[in-house]
Write a structure and sequence with these properties.
By secondary structure, this protein is α/β, with parallel strands linked by helices. It is built from 13 helices and 18 strands. Strand 8, helix 8 and strand 9 form a beta-alpha-beta unit. The N and C termini lie far apart (63 Å). The structure holds nicotinamide-adenine-dinucleotide.
């Protein structure tokens, strides 16, 4: 899989830096060409990537296209449509003491050589979307796919050099030794997606070179269900959002937070919704994925005892299968509530009312997303104003990250910085202040 030795990163970075210095990546035409070629790669080899995603994660072709290949194509199209406008210098008002003839504006400068480190759960989308933002901003880029999705990593390493300018884009495959060697190099920005423990390693390494970082991390994203919400709709949407990619989604609803009465009423709705989506035997369903590896399978299996199983609970280690599971009567101190679940287990935790729900959320790390299902404007406003999370979704989980005009990122333990659309340009550029006063 990996034929690069840990010595090579220095050479790779030096080559990309030379390309950047030459000015090759600056013209908008170069950037647009790279994005168009990436688009062509995705249309010509979407099937190969889907196959790799099926090998690594048991993703169905439909899901592979919807959440990875087509998602990335949409982001490319959005960027191609707006790039000129996003890059336009922005005038700033000049104070009177500088005279009438002075002008001021900001312009975006590319940063240089960017490192993108991607995780395994959406190994195409989460590698290519930051990369295309870095290229659209005029940078050279090293991408490091996750070794835990080896088929996808190999496909990316094989395909990218066939389409993109190899003097400005490099793929480095590998695990901890290769990533550690990369991190010793000086980059102009590091964009990391994954868990917070490695996020800290990345940030420490970046500090050596005073390199800015974007950390796209995870955490426990709560789903608050209000009294009086239409539980039929709520259960359908939560089941879709939670069990997509077998729950291995950074913005998946991690747990349900609701009052005891609603919790009871939700139980039968969850049973119905799971069966409606995956049939009586989810293991046979094409729409339900598998756990990435045995380590995660064992970690998740140990969480199944944290409550009463309303639906699911079945496991098969050889197949890395864990049924879509809903747990009721879950104690907030139980193992399933102590860490990000990142798998197909949905605990229901009860609180007395909205005040207690807000306190519950604020007592814990700031989540990547907060979801709420409510008909009440006041409840929506209070949740928006009184809690902090990377994103906030009313009535629909996950979907906010598909809006290219919204910044996607976390806060506190769920990360720092953001991207997508114009926010990728903000992330991968320096906004330079310029003042001009005529000499005459
Ligand atoms: P992972 O194990 O694939 O790790 C991510 C990357 O870090 C990989 O490329 C890996 O090679 C590298 N890495 C691992 N250990 C390292 C080390 N010691 N030194 C340097 N590099 C190292 O993925 P993961 O961390 O298991 O991903 C799951 C986590 O990521 C979850 O917490 C999830 O919520 C989060 N996540 C966040 C987002 C987001 O957009 N915010 C998206 C997906 C996943």
């Amino acid at each position: 899989m990996n034929d690069r030795t840990p010595e090579q990163p220095a050479e790779i970075v030096a080559q990309l830096r030379a390309t950047f210095r030459s000015g090759r990546t600056q013209p908008v035409e170069w950037r647009v060409t790279q994005l168009r070629r990436l688009r062509r790669l995705l249309t010509e080899h979407g099937g190969d990537l889907a196959e790799a995603l099926h090998t690594d994660l048991g993703k169905s072709t439909t899901e592979a296209f919807r959440t990875e290949v087509d998602f990335t194509i949409r982001e490319i199209d959005h960027t191609l449509e707006h790039l000129d406008a996003w890059l336009r210098p922005e005038p700033a008002p000049v104070p009177g003491h500088l005279g009438d003839d002075a002008r001021a504006w900001t312009r975006f400068d590319a940063l240089g050589v960017v490192l993108v480190i991607a995780p395994w759960n959406y190994p195409v989308q989460l590698l290519l979307t930051p990369m295309l933002g870095a290229l659209a901003s005029g940078n050279a880029v090293v991408v490091k796919p996750s070794e835990l999705a080896p088929a996808t990593s190999a496909a990316i390493a094989r395909l990218l050099p066939r389409y993109l300018d190899t003097s400005a884009v490099a793929v480095v495959e590998g695990a901890i030794p290769e990533t550690t060697a990369l991190l010793a190099e000086r980059f102009d920005h590091i964009f990391y997606t994954g868990n917070g423990a490695v996020g800290r390693i990345v940030m420490r390494a970046a500090a050596e070179h005073l390199t800015p970082v974007t950390l796209e991390l995870g955490g426990k994203s709560p789903a608050f269900v209000d009294r009086g919400a239409d539980l039929n709709v709520v259960a359908d949407r939560l089941v879709r959002g939670k069990f997509l990619n077998a729950g291995q989604t950074c913005v998946a609803p991690d747990y349900v937070l609701t009052d005891p009465e609603t919790a009871r009423a939700l139980e039968s709705e969850f049973v119905r919704a799971v069966e409606a989506l995956f049939g009586a035997e989810p293991k046979e369903s094409d729409a339900f994925g598998r756990i990435i590896n045995e380590r995660h399978f064992d970690r998740l299996s140990a969480l199944l005892d944290s409550g009463r199983s309303v639906t699911g609970g079945a496991t098969d280690r050889a197949a890395k299968y864990i049924a879509p599971t809903v747990l009721a009567d879950v104690d907030p101190a139980s193992p399933v509530m102590r860490e990000e679940i990142f798998g197909p287990i949905l605990p229901i935790v009860t609180v007395a009312d909205l005040d207690e729900a807000i306190a519950f959320i604020n007592d814990r790390d700031k989540p990547l997303a907060l979801y709420a299902f409510t008909e009440s404007d006041t409840t929506r406003e209070r949740l928006a104003a009184e809690t902090s999370s990377g994103g906030l979704g009313f009535g629909l989980p996950l979907a906010h990250l598909t809006v290219s005009d919204l910044p996607f990122g976390g806060v506190g333990e769920s990360g720092m910085g953001s991207y997508h659309g114009r926010y990728s340009i903000e992330t991968f550029s320096h906004r330079k202040s310029v003042l001009e006063k005529p000499l005459g």
